[in-house]
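Good day; I would like, with your permission, to put a structural problem before you. I would ask you to consider whether the tokens describe a fold that such a sequence might reasonably adopt. The full record is reproduced below for your convenience:
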Amino acid sequence: MDKSVIKKIRDIVGNKNVLTSREDLVCYAYDASGIESLPDIVVFPGSAAEISAIVQLANRFNFPLFPRGAGSGNVGGAVPLGGGVVIALSCLDKIIEIDVENQYAVVEPGVITGEFQKAVSGKGLYYPPDPASLNFCTIGGNVATGAGGPRAVKYGVTYNYVLGLEVVLPTGEIINTGRKTVKGVVGYDLTSLFIGSEGTLGIITKIILRLIPKPEKKATLLVLFDNIGKCVGAVGEILKSHTLPSAIEFIDRNTIRAVESRFKMGFPENVEAILLIEVDGDSEIVELIKGKLVSVCKNYRAIKIDVALKEDEQEELWKVRRSIAPALLSLKPSKINEDVCVPRNRIPDLVMELERISAKYAVPVASFGHAGDGNLHVNFLLDRANTDELVRAERATQELFDVVLKLGGTLSGEHGIGIAKSPFMSMEVGDTGLKVMKSIKKALDPNNIMNPGKIFEPNWAFFRKSKNLTANSATRT
């Protein structure tokens, strides 16, 4: 990048808020997908006005901008393809307001999700969205990707809690969308347009979030099954029982083996599947629902049911779910990770199809995730140095997508599209759908400066040159 342009950026944000050394830039060259591309500079703006000034420079001098939260995304959405400027939003980290009476909060995008949950909990309120990375991911990143989490079965996802936004548009103009009220139907729903747009339509600088009263009580159940069919049968029965747990997490055999191998949690060898179920609400309701859930699981021949009512005991049960990501690589050195979602009553069909696909292509599969809302994280395990394994895993992934769409599902439940899934967008939305989305992008970002190369435009040359691709991205070539 031209030194004179970098100087202009320094003049806007201050010298200490611009990084240019290679050692610093490497830290902002990747996200959780493992895809890497080095930016030209990294900038830490302190206000929407500073971001607006940088965006205006980008249009004037034709350089790309890449908004970045904590870099916890799984599809390469924050990766700065081909250089350009990373707009790191970590300095915009204030909780501006928590209105207890009207049950909303106003925050900046760099606020850590888990810290925000603790802040509102201290005031008797509750912010339910709980992505697995909640201890380090940011609210802004959650909004930009439409993040979900285990509690979505009862409470919904990030989308359901965003009332309004402040956004710096790709032209440098600043727009405020939505409202602080419960109701509001003035014009188009621009707030929804920006949720899940992955930084391609603007940079979010302020967020108004809906809150709800904090549940009085919570119970957690860890249920072990020696047969996967019984486990998914229990899931179906729970969903039909109208008990509405706040979370129903499913963990399959290979995932259990990985967790046990890595963390020695003491699961019996005959365990084939696990359900982790959470119930919350008024004390009497929690007790009633807990009893019904135990009864359903016993009817489906669960071999063990642990129930935790105290917070420390509940955290202990949740350790199995939170240990999965680091444990899976103990089975194979790499994986293709997809977060597909199907209608809830088709979860049994999806699980059985996964068994079939795994056997057909001789690729181990480990699946886990949010059975309560139909969203499973499917991991095809492989050694990406083995070309034959890589090809078989690619074919297995393609067949997985075909199956998911036939079941009435979607290719991404909560991770978004980014780079990794962009080649497959048309499978779900069709060519006309893609054309409409591109026209919206063009209207708001005529110079294509805002997070280019994502969602619609896969950069195949980048894939072929990269030396640091994960199996997930390598299969996209």
Q: What stands out?
A: The chain has 17 helices and 18 strands.
